[in-house]
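>> received
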Amino acid sequence: MTTTVHPQTAPSGLLRSRRFLSVWSAQTLSAAGDRLFSAAVAWYAIMHLGVTTGVIVVGLAQFLPIAIMAPFTGVLVDRLPRHWLLAGTDIARFAVSLALCLAFSTIGLSTPLLVIGIVVLRVTGVMFEPALQSHIGTVASDEGEVLRLDAWLLTSDMISGMLGPVLAGIAVTAGIQIALLVNSLTFLLSALSLIGALRALTDGSPARTHSLRAAAGGWTTAAREGLAAARQDPAMTRLAPTLPLIDLVETGVLLVLPALLIDQSTHGGLWYGTLIGSWFTGRLLGLLLARRFIVRTRKGILLALNAFIQGTALLAAGLWPAPPWMMLCFLIVGVPSGCASVCVNAYIQTRIEENLRGRIFALLGAVVALSMPLGPVISGLVAHLASPALSLVVLGAVLAVVGLSPLTSRQLWQTP
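>> returned
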C-alpha cells in the first residue's frame, strides 16, 4: 500500500531546533554503545570459546532476539509515544549494562551469564532503531528535512561504527567489566540528551496510548497488517531481497578482506585500512549527494541501481584483487550504499502510512539481523575451499544478480 504521506508540520523543523545537536549526539552515543558492547563480547567469546563457537554463540545471542521480537516491537512502536520510547529504551539499557557490570564484578564472569546479558540487553534495546526511524518522518517539517535528518543520522551511525570497536579495544584490555561500564555511560548520556530534547521530538500525530497492556492488545493482527503493507508496496517488494543481502555481503567482505590482502601484499594491514577508508569515503560522498542533489528529485533511480552497482564493483575487485584497483572499487561500492540508505529510510518515512512505519522498520531490522551472521559463514567457507578472491567474486556476483530485480523494475525507476 503506497501513499504519499506528508510529515506533520511543526512551527519549526527539528534541524532548526537548538536541540538537534542533542538528538544527533544521542543517536551517536547510543549506537556507539551498541558497537562497543558487540565488539567487547565478541572479543571475550572468541578468547574463551574459540573462533567458531564464539562467533556462533555471540551471533545467535545478539541477532536472534531482534528477529524474534520484531513483529511485537514494531506494533509497540506504532502504538506508544515514540519520543518516550527513545528515552526509555536508553534508560533501560543503561540499567542493564550497569547491572551486568556489577554482576560480573561480584559473581564472576561466565559464558552462560554473558549470553543471558547479551540477550537481555538486546531485548531492552530492540525498539530504539525502529522508533527513531519512524519518528523522523513525523517530526520533520517537510520531505526535504526528512532527507537531511536521515543523512545526519546515517553519518552518526558511521562515526559510531568506527568509535565503538576502538572503545571496546581499549576497554577490554582492562576487563570486560570496564567495557560494560563504558557502555552503560554511553546509554545514560544518550538518555539524558533525549530527555532534554523531548519537546523538540514531540510530534503532531494522533494521540497514542501510554498503557503497555493496551498497546500490546491484538498484536498478532497488527503485525500481520504491517507485513501485508510491506508485501503490497511495489517498491518494497522489489527492494526486500536486496536489503538484507547487502548487509550479509558487507559482513562477509569484512571477514575475508584481511586474508585476501595477506595473499596479495606484504603490507596487508596498511591496505586494509586504506580500503575500509575508501569504502567509508564513498558512503560519506553518497550521503552528501543524497542530501544535496539527488534524492528530492528521484529516489527510485538510486534504489534501482544500488545493489547491482555494489555487486558489480565487488565482483570487479575480486576478479582483479590488486589493492590500488580494489581501492577504486570499494569507493564505488560506498557511493550507492550511502545514497540508497537515505533513500530507503526516506521512502518509508514519507510513502508508508504513519501508523505502520514502526512495523515496517522492525520487519526490515529482523530480516537484516537474520542475514548478517550468514555473511562470514559463506565468505569463510568459499575462502577455505578455494581462495579469498573467489569469495569476493561470489559475494559480488550474488548481489549483482539479485540486484537485477530492482534494476529492471520500470515502476521503481519512476518512484519520485
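>> The radius of gyration is 21 Å.
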